[in-house]
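Aim 2 progress update. The chain analyzed this quarter is reproduced below.
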Amino acid sequence: MTVSVVYYTGVVKAKIKTDSYLLNMLPNSKREAVLIVQPDDYMKELVEQAMFKVRCMSSVSETKQRSVKSDDFRLRRPDIEIEAPEKVKVGEEFPVDIKFVNPLPCALTNCEFTVEGPGIQHSREYPLHHVEPGAEAKISVHITAKRPGQRRLVASFDCLELPDISGSLFIDVTK
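Predicted structure tokens:
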């Protein structure tokens, strides 16, 4: 069994863990082979889509038959929580709170929030130095909507260890 980090195209960037198992099986039976992968195994190899490929090859010693199975999956990125009023008026300032909790067992470095939204906010960066394991990164900003209509506010969090985490919400802007 092999676990690899792959690019979104499926091309392998790095094999991160491999192990072999010898399982004695009875006819029509099922067995599990478990390969435990820890964050330390893949964090330095992770690429933008956080994709993995698991390959498992099996063979039957008596018949020399072989079988290969593979599966791709992505790590689920953590959520950004955005709190803002559902309705605001053009020209009036309103508060927006943005939070993100570091799910990793290591500190996040070179962190930055970006907030933007057509008709609400031009893209604006808010740098943070680092976020400790399990700690919450939070910013509070004040924004003034410029145009009426239903507008989407987008917030993203970026750092070296866990890039491109984003969230959004809709705000109804009235005249």
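The longest strand covers residues 121-131. Residues 98 and 136 are 10 Å apart (CA to CA). These observations will guide the mutagenesis experiments scheduled for the next reporting period.
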